[in-house]
Design brief:
heterodimer; A: two-stranded antiparallel sheet; 5 helices; 61% helix; B: mainly alpha; Butyryl-CoA Dehydrogenase, subunit A, domain 3; globular
Protein backbone atom coordinates (compact mmCIF):
# COMPACT_ATOMS: atom_id res chain seq x y z
CA UNK A 1 0.00 0.00 0.00
CA UNK A 2 1.26 3.48 -0.81
CA UNK A 3 0.73 6.64 1.28
CA UNK A 4 -2.36 7.72 -0.70
CA UNK A 5 -4.11 4.39 -0.09
CA UNK A 6 -3.17 4.44 3.59
CA UNK A 7 -4.27 8.03 4.29
CA UNK A 8 -7.55 7.39 2.48
CA UNK A 9 -8.22 4.48 4.83
CA UNK A 10 -6.80 5.84 8.08
CA UNK A 11 -10.08 6.96 9.59
CA UNK A 12 -11.73 3.63 8.73
CA UNK A 13 -8.67 1.91 10.22
CA UNK A 14 -9.05 3.85 13.48
CA UNK A 15 -12.70 2.85 13.63
CA UNK A 16 -11.93 -0.83 12.89
CA UNK A 17 -13.93 -0.61 9.68
CA UNK A 18 -11.28 -2.22 7.46
CA UNK A 19 -10.72 -5.89 6.67
CA UNK A 20 -8.08 -7.95 8.42
CA UNK A 21 -5.58 -7.85 5.57
CA UNK A 22 -6.08 -4.08 5.09
CA UNK A 23 -5.49 -3.52 8.78
CA UNK A 24 -2.26 -5.56 8.63
CA UNK A 25 -1.07 -3.69 5.53
CA UNK A 26 -1.78 -0.28 7.11
CA UNK A 27 -0.09 -1.31 10.35
CA UNK A 28 3.06 -2.41 8.57
CA UNK A 29 3.08 0.77 6.40
CA UNK A 30 2.75 2.96 9.52
CA UNK A 31 5.82 1.31 11.06
CA UNK A 32 8.01 2.74 8.34
CA UNK A 33 6.18 5.91 7.18
CA UNK A 34 6.55 9.04 9.34
CA UNK A 35 4.10 11.23 7.41
CA UNK A 36 1.29 8.64 7.58
CA UNK A 37 1.99 8.15 11.29
CA UNK A 38 1.68 11.92 11.77
CA UNK A 39 -1.58 11.86 9.85
CA UNK A 40 -2.80 9.10 12.15
CA UNK A 41 -1.95 11.29 15.15
CA UNK A 42 -3.93 14.22 13.68
CA UNK A 43 -6.99 12.08 13.07
CA UNK A 44 -6.75 10.68 16.61
CA UNK A 45 -6.62 14.25 17.99
CA UNK A 46 -9.58 15.24 15.82
CA UNK A 47 -11.58 12.30 17.13
CA UNK A 48 -10.71 13.12 20.74
CA UNK A 49 -12.25 16.58 20.25
CA UNK A 50 -15.67 14.96 19.91
CA UNK A 51 -15.49 13.22 23.26
CA UNK A 52 -13.93 16.23 24.95
CA UNK A 53 -16.68 18.50 23.64
CA UNK A 54 -19.60 16.46 25.02
CA UNK A 55 -22.05 18.53 27.01
CA UNK A 56 -24.56 17.46 29.65
CA UNK A 57 -28.24 18.12 28.98
CA UNK A 58 -30.10 20.08 31.62
CA UNK A 59 -31.42 17.92 34.50
CA UNK A 60 -34.73 19.75 34.09
CA UNK A 61 -35.35 17.77 30.88
CA UNK A 62 -35.92 14.50 32.71
CA UNK A 63 -38.35 16.21 35.08
CA UNK A 64 -40.18 17.65 32.10
CA UNK A 65 -40.33 14.24 30.37
CA UNK A 66 -41.73 12.71 33.58
CA UNK A 67 -44.58 15.22 33.49
CA UNK A 68 -45.52 14.14 29.97
CA UNK A 69 -45.51 10.45 30.73
CA UNK A 70 -48.28 8.32 32.12
CA UNK A 71 -47.49 6.61 35.41
CA UNK A 72 -46.79 2.89 35.35
CA UNK A 73 -44.50 0.37 33.87
CA UNK A 74 -43.79 -0.67 30.35
CA UNK A 75 -45.31 -4.01 29.47
CA UNK A 76 -43.04 -7.05 29.95
CA UNK A 77 -43.86 -8.24 26.44
CA UNK A 78 -43.34 -5.98 23.44
CA UNK A 79 -46.56 -5.37 21.53
CA UNK A 80 -45.34 -7.26 18.46
CA UNK A 81 -45.15 -10.41 20.57
CA UNK A 82 -48.42 -9.88 22.45
CA UNK A 83 -50.67 -11.34 19.70
CA UNK A 84 -48.44 -14.43 19.63
CA UNK A 85 -48.78 -14.89 23.39
CA UNK A 86 -52.56 -14.37 23.19
CA UNK A 87 -52.83 -16.88 20.32
CA UNK A 88 -50.78 -19.49 22.20
CA UNK A 89 -52.92 -19.03 25.31
CA UNK A 90 -56.14 -19.35 23.27
CA UNK A 91 -54.92 -22.53 21.55
CA UNK A 92 -53.97 -24.07 24.90
CA UNK A 93 -57.35 -23.16 26.36
CA UNK A 94 -59.28 -24.61 23.41
CA UNK A 95 -57.14 -27.73 23.44
CA UNK A 96 -57.94 -28.14 27.13
CA UNK A 97 -61.69 -27.71 26.58
CA UNK A 98 -61.84 -30.26 23.74
CA UNK A 99 -59.38 -32.82 24.98
CA UNK A 100 -60.24 -32.96 28.65
CA UNK A 101 -63.64 -34.78 28.36
CA UNK A 102 -62.10 -37.42 26.07
CA UNK A 103 -59.15 -38.00 28.31
CA UNK A 104 -61.38 -38.14 31.35
CA UNK A 105 -63.72 -40.67 29.68
CA UNK A 106 -60.77 -42.89 28.69
CA UNK A 107 -59.34 -42.77 32.18
CA UNK A 108 -62.71 -43.69 33.73
CA UNK A 109 -63.22 -46.55 31.28
CA UNK A 110 -59.76 -47.92 31.91
CA UNK A 111 -60.22 -47.75 35.64
CA UNK A 112 -63.65 -49.44 35.41
CA UNK A 113 -62.22 -52.27 33.31
CA UNK A 114 -59.35 -52.69 35.69
CA UNK A 115 -61.80 -52.95 38.57
CA UNK A 116 -64.06 -55.38 36.71
CA UNK A 117 -61.25 -57.70 35.76
CA UNK A 118 -59.21 -57.09 38.86
CA UNK A 119 -56.20 -56.05 36.75
CA UNK A 120 -53.36 -54.53 38.69
CA UNK A 121 -50.91 -53.97 35.82
CA UNK A 122 -50.91 -50.74 33.89
CA UNK A 123 -53.40 -51.07 31.06
CA UNK A 124 -53.79 -48.90 28.01
CA UNK A 125 -56.92 -48.23 26.11
CA UNK A 126 -56.63 -49.35 22.50
CA UNK A 127 -58.07 -46.70 20.18
CA UNK A 128 -57.60 -48.89 17.15
CA UNK A 129 -60.28 -51.35 18.20
CA UNK A 130 -63.61 -51.46 16.36
CA UNK A 131 -66.33 -49.12 17.49
CA UNK A 132 -68.33 -50.45 20.40
CA UNK A 133 -65.63 -52.91 21.27
CA UNK A 134 -63.34 -52.23 24.15
CA UNK A 135 -59.91 -53.70 24.09
CA UNK A 136 -56.93 -53.09 26.24
CA UNK A 137 -53.32 -54.06 26.08
CA UNK A 138 -50.93 -54.66 28.92
CA UNK A 139 -48.16 -52.17 29.45
CA UNK A 140 -45.35 -54.63 30.13
CA UNK A 141 -45.79 -56.35 26.80
CA UNK A 142 -46.47 -53.30 24.72
CA UNK A 143 -44.17 -50.63 26.01
CA UNK A 144 -43.70 -49.21 22.54
CA UNK A 145 -47.33 -49.04 21.66
CA UNK A 146 -48.28 -45.55 20.59
CA UNK A 147 -51.83 -44.32 20.95
CA UNK B 1 -41.69 6.52 35.73
CA UNK B 2 -40.67 3.00 34.74
CA UNK B 3 -37.13 2.23 35.99
CA UNK B 4 -36.22 0.73 32.60
CA UNK B 5 -37.03 4.01 30.94
CA UNK B 6 -34.98 5.90 33.54
CA UNK B 7 -32.04 3.60 32.80
CA UNK B 8 -32.45 4.06 29.06
CA UNK B 9 -32.57 7.80 29.53
CA UNK B 10 -29.51 7.79 31.79
CA UNK B 11 -27.47 5.70 29.33
CA UNK B 12 -28.40 7.55 26.16
CA UNK B 13 -29.62 11.08 26.86
CA UNK B 14 -26.15 12.67 26.84
CA UNK B 15 -25.30 11.18 23.45
CA UNK B 16 -28.69 11.86 21.90
CA UNK B 17 -28.46 15.44 23.16
CA UNK B 18 -24.96 15.91 21.75
CA UNK B 19 -25.91 14.52 18.34
CA UNK B 20 -28.80 17.02 18.18
CA UNK B 21 -26.59 19.79 19.55
CA UNK B 22 -23.86 19.04 17.01
CA UNK B 23 -26.35 19.60 14.22
CA UNK B 24 -28.33 22.49 15.70
CA UNK B 25 -25.66 24.29 17.73
CA UNK B 26 -28.35 25.56 20.04
CA UNK B 27 -28.83 24.06 23.50
CA UNK B 28 -32.51 24.90 23.93
CA UNK B 29 -33.43 23.48 20.56
CA UNK B 30 -31.33 20.35 21.15
CA UNK B 31 -33.04 19.83 24.52
CA UNK B 32 -36.47 20.22 22.90
CA UNK B 33 -35.58 17.63 20.28
CA UNK B 34 -34.26 15.25 22.94
CA UNK B 35 -37.35 15.64 25.09
CA UNK B 36 -39.68 14.95 22.15
CA UNK B 37 -37.65 11.92 21.09
CA UNK B 38 -37.77 10.33 24.55
CA UNK B 39 -41.50 11.00 24.92
CA UNK B 40 -42.09 9.43 21.49
CA UNK B 41 -39.93 6.50 22.51
CA UNK B 42 -42.01 5.89 25.61
CA UNK B 43 -45.23 6.03 23.59
CA UNK B 44 -43.96 3.59 20.99
CA UNK B 45 -41.96 1.35 23.29
CA UNK B 46 -44.29 -1.61 22.93
CA UNK B 47 -43.44 -1.99 19.24
CA UNK B 48 -39.71 -2.58 19.84
CA UNK B 49 -38.04 -5.96 19.67
CA UNK B 50 -35.04 -5.32 21.90
CA UNK B 51 -32.36 -2.97 23.18
CA UNK B 52 -30.63 -2.45 19.82
CA UNK B 53 -33.99 -1.77 18.18
CA UNK B 54 -34.66 0.95 20.76
CA UNK B 55 -31.22 2.53 20.29
CA UNK B 56 -31.61 2.56 16.50
CA UNK B 57 -35.03 4.19 16.88
CA UNK B 58 -33.73 6.75 19.37
CA UNK B 59 -30.98 7.99 17.08
CA UNK B 60 -33.07 7.72 13.92
CA UNK B 61 -35.72 9.90 15.52
CA UNK B 62 -33.08 12.31 16.74
CA UNK B 63 -31.49 12.74 13.32
CA UNK B 64 -34.81 12.95 11.48
CA UNK B 65 -36.40 15.37 13.92
CA UNK B 66 -33.28 17.52 13.95
CA UNK B 67 -33.13 17.68 10.14
CA UNK B 68 -36.86 18.47 10.00
CA UNK B 69 -36.36 21.16 12.61
CA UNK B 70 -33.44 22.72 10.71
CA UNK B 71 -35.52 22.74 7.52
CA UNK B 72 -38.45 24.43 9.25
CA UNK B 73 -36.07 26.88 10.95
CA UNK B 74 -34.52 27.77 7.61
CA UNK B 75 -37.98 28.22 6.12
CA UNK B 76 -38.95 30.48 9.01
CA UNK B 77 -35.81 32.57 8.73
CA UNK B 78 -36.37 32.83 4.94
CA UNK B 79 -39.86 34.17 5.63
CA UNK B 80 -38.49 36.61 8.21
CA UNK B 81 -35.89 37.84 5.72
CA UNK B 82 -38.58 38.29 3.08
CA UNK B 83 -40.61 40.29 5.56
CA UNK B 84 -37.50 42.39 6.24
CA UNK B 85 -37.69 41.79 9.96
CA UNK B 86 -34.50 41.94 12.06
CA UNK B 87 -32.98 39.31 14.38
CA UNK B 88 -32.91 35.94 12.67
CA UNK B 89 -32.53 32.92 15.00
CA UNK B 90 -29.21 33.05 16.80
CA UNK B 91 -27.17 30.00 17.66
CA UNK B 92 -25.71 29.27 21.09
CA UNK B 93 -22.84 31.62 21.85
CA UNK B 94 -21.07 29.11 24.06
CA UNK B 95 -19.77 26.84 21.29
CA UNK B 96 -16.55 24.90 21.09
CA UNK B 97 -14.04 25.00 18.26
CA UNK B 98 -15.29 21.63 17.13
CA UNK B 99 -18.82 23.01 16.85
CA UNK B 100 -17.58 25.80 14.61
CA UNK B 101 -15.76 23.23 12.46
CA UNK B 102 -18.85 21.04 12.27
CA UNK B 103 -20.85 24.05 11.23
CA UNK B 104 -18.91 24.11 7.98
CA UNK B 105 -20.28 20.70 7.02
CA UNK B 106 -23.73 20.15 5.61
CA UNK B 107 -26.19 17.94 7.51
CA UNK B 108 -25.67 15.09 5.08
CA UNK B 109 -22.02 14.80 6.14
CA UNK B 110 -22.45 15.94 9.73
CA UNK B 111 -25.10 13.41 10.82
CA UNK B 112 -23.13 10.21 10.09
CA UNK B 113 -19.98 11.66 11.68
CA UNK B 114 -21.88 12.59 14.85
CA UNK B 115 -23.48 9.15 14.97
CA UNK B 116 -20.05 7.54 14.58
CA UNK B 117 -18.11 9.74 16.99
CA UNK B 118 -20.73 10.57 19.61
CA UNK B 119 -23.14 7.66 19.31
CA UNK B 120 -20.28 5.19 18.78
CA UNK B 121 -22.13 3.40 16.00
CA UNK B 122 -20.52 1.24 13.33
CA UNK B 123 -20.97 2.18 9.67
CA UNK B 124 -23.48 -0.65 9.32
CA UNK B 125 -25.57 0.66 12.22
CA UNK B 126 -25.42 4.20 10.83
CA UNK B 127 -26.68 2.90 7.49
CA UNK B 128 -29.63 1.35 9.34
CA UNK B 129 -30.33 4.48 11.41
CA UNK B 130 -30.17 6.81 8.42
CA UNK B 131 -31.77 4.35 6.05
CA UNK B 132 -28.99 4.71 3.47
CA UNK B 133 -26.61 2.10 2.11
CA UNK B 134 -23.27 1.20 3.67
CA UNK B 135 -21.21 2.61 0.79
CA UNK B 136 -22.94 5.97 1.13
CA UNK B 137 -22.23 6.06 4.87
CA UNK B 138 -18.56 5.27 4.27
CA UNK B 139 -18.21 7.88 1.55
CA UNK B 140 -20.04 10.62 3.52
CA UNK B 141 -17.99 9.96 6.65
CA UNK B 142 -14.70 10.00 4.78
CA UNK B 143 -15.59 13.19 2.90
CA UNK B 144 -16.73 14.85 6.11
CA UNK B 145 -13.68 13.80 8.10
CA UNK B 146 -11.35 14.99 5.31
CA UNK B 147 -13.03 18.41 5.41
CA UNK B 148 -12.96 18.61 9.21
CA UNK B 149 -9.31 17.63 9.23
CA UNK B 150 -8.54 20.32 6.66
CA UNK B 151 -10.43 23.04 8.58
CA UNK B 152 -8.89 21.97 11.88
CA UNK B 153 -5.42 22.21 10.37
CA UNK B 154 -6.15 25.70 9.03
CA UNK B 155 -7.28 26.73 12.51
CA UNK B 156 -4.11 25.16 13.96
CA UNK B 157 -6.16 22.81 16.10
CA UNK B 158 -4.26 19.65 15.21
Amino acid sequence: MNCKHVTDMLYDYLRHEVSGWESDAIKSHLKTCTSCSEELGKLTRLRSMFKAGLKEPSPAILASIRKHMPAGRWSIFPAVLRPAFAMAAAIMLLAGVFLYPGLDRKAKLTNALADDYNITETAYYDDTADAGEVSYIYGNDYDNEIF
Amino acid sequence: MDPRFEKLYKNNSKYVYNVALGMLRNRDEAEDIMQNVFIKLFEGYSSFRGESDIKTYLYRMTVNKTIDYIRSRNLRSDKIENMELPEPKKTDSNISMLDSLLDKLNDELKAPILLAEIGGFSYKEIAEIMNINLGTVKSRINRGIAKLREYAEKEALL
